[in-house]
Amino acid sequence: MPKQIYITREIPEAGLKLLREKGIEFDMGTNDLPPSKKEIIKILKKKPYDGVISFLTDTIDEEIFNACPTARIFANYSVGFNNIDLEVAKKRKVEISNTPGTSNIAVAEHTVALMLALTTRLVEGDRYMRAGKYKGWNPKLLMGTDMKGKTIGLVGGGAIGGEVAKILYKGFGSNIIYCDVVNNKKLEEESGAVKKEFGDLMKTADIVSLHCPLLPSTTHLINKEALLMMKPTAFLINTARGPIVDEYALVLALKNKVISGAALDVFEFEPKLAKGLSKLNNVILTPHIASARETARNMMAEIAVKNIISVFETGKAINSVLG
Ligand code: DGY
């Protein structure tokens, strides 16, 4: 009997081709919006699927595992895997994998784009033009800040943080500081990065950029107290996970000019925004698109499928996150 999997939403052909080559059958959701948990459960109960490709918008917990006791793997189509209850997966001996390294370049470039958009006041300028407010050159209009030589504080010095550091160190002569639970020698050698305590980093950085996973220890890491440590001229960038930032505290900090500005690609209550956020001029918002590139999405599809195949063939995923 051929193996069969359920893919909760559409993935690129690059991954589907590998499934066909291996004779693995699949059912795939085709809606642009995420399926509800109820919808996922309904589908999972229809067939004895051997595996599932899940997305960061799918909450994979006991109820889901119960609906599909035959599934040996949930291969997440993303680098992050905070949508999955790993403890329950371990208990039930269900393999869980992610797609590490697929979006380092894309997310790093998006992060730097957000930094530049903030320091050049690019989005404000665009809004100003479209509103017909530009009546003639004014030397004081929408004054920005130089990026060159600034101190960039990376919260999380892993692969994505490392790419951001390389672009900024080589392109803008930035001083890179980082905090992490581990030392990153490569980051230090490639970008002259210096490891700091979290508090020191928050106080020193001109731009704080978040590149850590969402864990109990990083949830609301950027809260009122942390924001108060930042320089009033500093900017905050979040391309990691929304709940790392206490978004209500951020709205207040931006309103009261505790910090100069922020740019967010991810949101605490995604897809909703904390009250007041969209009214602020000193914040730039993008809809979780940092990794939205054909290159990254194709790689994510291939790696998710390769993890499925690996479990079917060897019992273990290539990119298991269960250790
Ligand atoms: C990831 O991979 O975790 C991104 O947030 C979505 O592509």
Highlighted features:
323 residues; binds (2R)-2,3-dihydroxypropanoic acid; alpha/beta; 14% strand; Rossmann fold
If you had to describe this structure to a student in words, what would you say it looks like?
The chain is α/β, with parallel strands linked by helices. The chain folds into two domains: 4-102 and 294-314, Rossmann fold, CATH 3.40.50; 104-285, Rossmann fold. It is 37% helix and 14% strand. The protein is built from twelve helices and twelve strands. The chain has a seven-stranded parallel β-sheet with strand order 8-7-6-9-10-11-12, with helices on both faces. A five-stranded parallel β-sheet has the order 2-1-3-4-5, with helices on both faces. α7 (159-172) runs parallel beside α8. The longest helix is centred in the C-terminal third of the chain and has 21 residues, at 294-314. The two termini are 30 Å apart. The mean pLDDT is 98. Bound molecules: (2R)-2,3-dihydroxypropanoic acid. The site of (2R)-2,3-dihydroxypropanoic acid (DGY) has 6 residues, from loops. (2R)-2,3-dihydroxypropanoic acid binds next to loops.
Would you summarize the structure shown here?
The protein has 323 residues and is an alpha/beta fold. The protein has twelve helices and twelve strands.
Write the topology of this structure.
Layout: E1 4-7, H1 13-21, E2 25-28, H2 37-44, E3 51-54, H3 62-67, E4 73-76, H4 86-92, E5 95-97, H5 104-120, H6 122-130, E6 151-155, H7 159-172, E7 175-179, H8 185-191, E8 194-195, H9 198-204, E9 207-210, H10 224-229, E10 235-238, H11 247-255, E11 261-264, E12 283-285, H12 294-314
Parallel strand pairs: 1-2, 1-3, 3-4, 4-5, 6-7, 6-9, 7-8, 9-10, 10-11, 11-12
Helix pairs in contact: 1-12, 5-7, 7-8
This protein binds (2R)-2,3-dihydroxypropanoic acid.
(2R)-2,3-dihydroxypropanoic acid (DGY) binds at residues 56, 78-80, 103, 291.
